[in-house]
């Protein structure tokens, strides 16, 4: 995995009308070049504010055909890599009030997420927001269509439901949302209720504490992210199908790469 502290030098910049610095030719930027390969094309870049809770961060996004790269501008000529996300494991939504506190302009914002992360992407104009939303939704959809496998077994543990714990293994596709999985689990467990009555929590070795999913996320992408990262060269966005087939037993993964899904009452 590439170091998040690596600095990249951008030799030429221009001042855009929105008041942010951007490379004249993003393809010539060393950060962009470091992610280029024979089956990946650079598409778009731009400045954005990413908001989570009370925190607001100024970031620069670089979109590729299969990957989103998030960077921080250290100066007019340097970018610091913060994170990268596979588009097949990402999602978009509009529940901004669930992700950040304070007011956000819905004309310029939407929720952007990937495994273990939800944030509000706030752009400088409605036009920029629509451009990014359109490209991201289109690329996410296309990458999911190419994804392999299309469904995986997902173990759901029910806690604080009745007098004992239950667990069921569901067949979950790459387009099933957390709310979809909740409904499937309730049906399989014979529990009355709806997705409003329950939350699906993730216990991830990447995080210090369990966290609840809002409902729009893709549990498939969350689990597959852990599995892909456990494989050799796990930072690559695509994995060999033969490698993936033997990796579904996440209990065999290192603790920091394991994840569990727990169903709990919303209250």
Automatic annotation (TrEMBL):
One of its GO terms (biological process) is signal transduction. GO terms for molecular function: GTPase activator activity. Residues 150-267 form the Ras-associating domain. InterPro entries: ARHGAP20_PH, ARHGAP20_RA, PH-like_dom_sf, RA_dom, Ubiquitin-like_domsf. PANTHER family: RHO GTPASE-ACTIVATING PROTEIN 20 (PTHR23179:SF28), T-CELL ACTIVATION RHO GTPASE ACTIVATING PROTEIN-RELATED (PTHR23179). This is Rho GTPase-activating protein 20.
